[in-house]
Design a protein that fits this description.
The protein is mainly beta and about 260 residues long. Helix content is about 15%, strand content about 35%. The strands form 6 sheets. Strands 6, 7, 8, 12, 13, 14 and 17 form a 7-stranded antiparallel sheet that branches. Strands 2, 3, 9, 19 and 20 form a 5-stranded mixed sheet that branches.
Length: about 260
């Protein structure tokens, strides 16, 4: 009996130690972001391009011939303020059906996050001229006369104008620039998308929806007869685009 008691005590301590080690372990998870597109709940892919079949909030019939946009700065934030920013950015190209799925190389700890955020476009720290060779080769640059840096989005197509003529439009989003004064004046037009609270238990896939119709809808009803081309140097148009973009993205599901 004298020999059994020390053995039992040692075994009990060993079990506690093992249990404590397991509690301290934090699993890491990979996250993937899939980007789907719709027009007021009607799915949109590149197979739907080049046909006038959509009607915007202003009543104009239109088609889509190109859709590319940039997302960056994916961030997972805990309720205590701790944040995990994932490396990389992604140029979603619906036209060529590429980069509709993005898996950052950085993993995150499992757990509950009060916010999952990403930036539409680049923030000012990242938006440098000729800093990203892949974006340069994709002709994603903004001319220096318009402030340099990179596009946030290129949305193009045709619409039936008020003379019943099929007319092209180019809804291009960049950082807003006012060139009317002696010096260039900028206004930030990138914006953060907040996908809300998420609990990560395993590798996770986020299904994110873009409602393309919202770019023309809220809070600014877009009149393509007035605002269809030469929008990049149009300061007010760029601000309006950024405002309309606040309701474009939503989180559909998270699959784990």
């Amino acid at each position: 009996m004298r020999n059994i008691f020390p053995i039992l005590v040692f075994s009990f301590i060993t079990l506690l130690s093992c249990g404590s080690d397991n509690d301290d372990e934090v699993s890491q998870a990979n996250v993937t972001f899939n980007f789907d597109h719709n027009w007021d709940a009607s799915p949109v892919t590149n197979s739907n391009f080049n046909t006038i079949q959509y009607t915007n909030a202003n009543g104009e019939e239109l088609s889509i011939t190109k859709l590319r946009y940039l997302i960056s700065n994916i961030t997972f934030q805990k309720s205590d303020g701790e944040t995990f920013v994932l490396d990389g950015y992604n140029l979603v190209d619906v036209t060529n059906n590429t980069n509709l799925s993005f898996t950052p190389t950085t993993t995150i700890p499992t757990g509950t996050y009060s916010k999952v955020l990403f930036t539409f476009g680049f923030n000012n720290d990242a938006n440098y001229n000729n800093n990203y060779p892949d974006l340069n080769s994709a002709t994603w640059n903004v001319p220096s006369i318009l402030g340099g840096g990179y596009h946030y989005m290129q949305l193009e197509g045709k619409f039936i104008d008020n003379t019943t003529t099929e007319t092209g439009y180019a809804y291009h989003a960049i950082r807003a620039l006012d060139n009317s004064g002696a010096t260039q004046e900028f206004q930030d037009t990138f914006f953060e998308v907040d996908l809300g609270e998420v609990t990560i238990t395993h590798n996770a896939t986020f299904e994110i929806d873009m409602n393309i119709a919202e770019w023309f809808k809220n809070p600014n009803t877009w009149d393509l007869n007035v605002l269809n081309n030469m929008l990049m140097p149009n300061f007010n148009a760029q601000v309006m685009m950024s405002q309309n973009g606040q309701n474009v993205f939503s989180l559909n599901t998270v699959n784990q």
